[in-house]
Write a structure and sequence with these properties.
2Fe-2S; mainly beta; metal-binding; 109 residues; Rieske Iron-sulfur Protein; Non-heme iron oxygenase ferredoxin subunit; globular; 3-stranded antiparallel beta sheet
């Protein structure tokens, strides 16, 4: 699969997340407090909860139901009860649009 348009940059407010589904993959597109745009898997690894309904602070996204925080940079959980990471996707900005390839995940060391 190739990259798909996820949303426009204008649809994203700082410290917010937007749920999109691309190629059947739920993704949380997030604009952090510094204005950087990230894309991570939208499902909390602790439970079947949409992370895009959670809280953004700096470069983390917190699950509203369980309180686990995930790094927007690595997808790694930063607090319990989650202990498995969520996938992180490559984001491309083309003009005023945000593109993501749901089949290409960032290689996080």
């Amino acid at each position: 699969m190739s990259r798909e348009r996820a949303c426009s940059v204008a649809e994203l407010e700082p410290d917010t997340a937007k749920r999109v589904v691309l190629g059947g993959v739920p993704i949380a597109v997030v604009k952090d407090s510094a204005g950087a745009i990230h894309a991570i898997g939208d499902t909390c690894t602790h439970g079947d909860i949409s992370l895009s309904e959670g809280f953004v602070e700096d470069d983390t996204l917190e699950c509203w139901a369980h309180g686990s925080q995930f790094s927007l940079l690595s997808g790694k959980p930063l607090s319990l009860p989650a202990y498995e990471p969520v996938p992180v996707f490559v984001v491309e900005i083309d003009g005023d649009d945000v593109y993501i390839d749901p089949d290409v995940k960032k290689d996080i060391a």
